[in-house]
Amino acid sequence: MLRFARWLPAVLWAGVIFAGSSVPGTSIPGGYSAYGHLGEYFVLGALALWAVRREDRGAVVLAIALCALYGASDEFHQAFVPFRVPDPVDWLTDVVGATAGISTYLWLALRRRTSPASPQ
Questions:
Q1: Whole-model pTM?
Q2: What is the DSSP letter of 68?
Q3: Contacts of 49 (CB under 8 A, 6+ apart)
Q4: Do 44 and 10 touch, CB atoms closer than 8 A?
Q5: Interval 51-95: pLDDT, tens
Q6: DSSP state of 29
Q7: How far apart are CA 98 and CA 45, in angstroms?
Q8: How far apart are CA 61 and CA 63, in angstroms?
Q9: C-alpha 95 chain-centroid distance
């Protein structure tokens, strides 16, 4: 049960991404761009690595692969949403965002391990 609980934030965030991808193209705000993809998948990447509970190379590869697969499925899903189309550039932006989120998670974890304990 604890393992499932670790995945719950990532699964819920994936649901948020799915809901956003279900919005017809005519209803998308004009300001939404690649930054939206980067931000959504930045969060998903960090949550995926947190859910894996490891910070080794295999865990990083797994988290990136899961985010890349989810991004591909999200782009495929958009083929069925009015006025939306799958876009390989959007998928690549998703992968870059996830990788940035994973990298940031690792950087923060390393800082936490190497910084001296704060005085009480």
A1: 0.89
A2: H
A3: 55, 59, 60, 63, 101, 102, 105, 106
A4: yes
A5: 998 889 999 999 999 999 999 999 999 999 998 899 999 999 999
A6: -
A7: 4
A8: 6
A9: 8
